[in-house]
Amino acid sequence: MSTVLRAVGLGKTYGRRAALDDCTLDIPAGRVVGLVGPNGAGKSTLLNLAVGMLAPTSGTIEVLGGTPPEHLAKVGYVAQDTPTYAHLTVADHLALGEHLNPAWDADLARRRIERLGLDPRQRARKLSGGQRAQLALTLGIAKRPELLILDEPVASLDPLARREFLQDLMEAVAEQELSVILSSHLVSDLERVCDHLIVLVASRVRLAGDLDDIVSGHVRVSGPRDAGHPGELVTASHTDVQSTYVVRYDGPIADPTWNVGHLSLEDIVLAYMEQRREPAVRELESVR
């Protein structure tokens, strides 16, 4: 299967408010895909539609070739704040996972709990935030899914716990050949583990593509005020005599009119997040 998630004109509205609007995406299989955007952009809505917790208002969505919640047994999901059951022990969580999931890998779950140093008798309410996140990740991985969906699982963790979580995630990806969709506000974390990125702003997809193509395909240029701009405009700022643009451009800019500067991935993401009222941007050719 070349695509783990396909959305065409996907939308979800609540009354007059659009939580997701005209979302068209093809997410490739075998990749670690980052999903980023400001609060209220539609990230959690998209992921909840993907696991069948919400029904679309318009358009279609397919996950692993079926319509959610079909194939749910093949999808692992860790929701926001890595929820666990406060009164259940670690062992209770593993027993529940085994009861609910036909492909449950009990040995994998046990080995991870032992390696993490979690006491099977400890109740979830007594665990630290990092330990609860690791327990939730264990439940998602031991399900032996084809697709693992993580909705901001590290947002509340300290830097060390976040790094440990992401390291464990990448080990699982390597061992199980997982496809992963990881939502986060932290671009640095996504840059560390992801090879594909989707930017959602104001309920619409603004950018989607491989990280290398995104970074190499955007530059900051500055030159005389109102001299126009090369490439496809992302954002613009002006002084009395000079204009500065973030543009999408393939290849070198040879025109001496422009001073050209390179951009970090975070610079690019922030530029698209400034487009709150602009039309949606086309996907990069590399993901079509």
Automatic annotation (TrEMBL):
Gene3D superfamilies: P-loop containing nucleotide triphosphate hydrolases (3.40.50.300). GO terms for molecular function: ATP binding. InterPro entries: AAA+_ATPase, ABC_transporter-like_ATP-bd, ABC_Transporter_VariousFunc, P-loop_NTPase. Keywords: ATP-binding, Nucleotide-binding, Transport. It comes from the Bacteria. Residues 5-227 form the ABC transporter domain. This is ABC transporter ATP-binding protein. It comes from Solirubrobacter deserti. The lineage of its organism: Bacteria, Bacillati, Actinomycetota, Thermoleophilia, Solirubrobacterales.
